[in-house]
């Protein structure tokens, strides 16, 4: 079937790149923000992130007129069960990420998000029976070698990097099964967890160990503003994805872990070992193979479409 002109107009393409780049940059500089909250336990930060986020996400749903999608999803038990699972996965991802940032493991978070696309390929192969193309096999093998090398040299399992990668990978896998938009899915996830989150924060307040309204105005404002680091980049990302090819988006996704790497070295002054340099080198080589495969595959699909 011959399609009509599917190329995005230049203005839309540039706008999409700007939206997506802004989203990845916000995610990329977020460690600076979370480090300002280092005196607050990571679990408490995550619970505040859950509680405050609907105050932004719900008005956005109203503005985008997605109430019907929200209502339809709530009537499907299978979708609700899947979203409960995705809620556990994304909150766990946030918990490990914020804990790692505030315990000087920014480099390892960078490794985790660099290998996330490769973990997605691996999970697609295992659970969706997706066949890997040759360059994808090479990329995945290089990533496995990199992780094994880091484990052997460190003498310990790089659990932070792998937890982040697999938690987000399984989160993405669940959202492939549930036909719901990113903004609606995240809103439902936050609403599902908001009850336990409010109960936990009230418990902390009752015990006198909570930070909100007890650790100063700066901490209060930072905790309330955690919703911005949840909703704003997601909104920018979803607007960008509508205007970009997947291959372009694939390149842009490396902005965030690259920011983590630069912040770890030049801002937080974390020591970089020889093993980490070799690990990053192998991962970057793997990502070159992965990205090359994505570009070649997209061009092949585009030619067949035409």
Helix count, DSSP H or I runs of 4 or more residues:
14
Main β-sheet, in a few words?
none
Q: Provide the gyration radius in Å.
A: 20 Å
**What level of helicity do the residues show?**
over 70%
Order of helices and strands: HHHHHHHHHHHHHH
Describe this structure in a few short sentences.
With 306 residues, the chain is mostly helical. It is 80% helix and 0% strand.
List keywords for this structure.
disordered N terminus, 80% helix, mainly alpha, 306 residues, single chain
3D architecture notes:
The structure is a single chain. This protein is mostly helical and 306 residues long. It has one domain (10-130, 160-270). It has helices spanning 10-35, 42-52, 54-64, 67-74, 77-101, 106-127, 134-154, 159-177, 182-207, 217-224, 226-241, 246-252, 255-267, 274-305. The chain is globular. The protein starts with 9 loop residues before the first helix and ends with a helix.
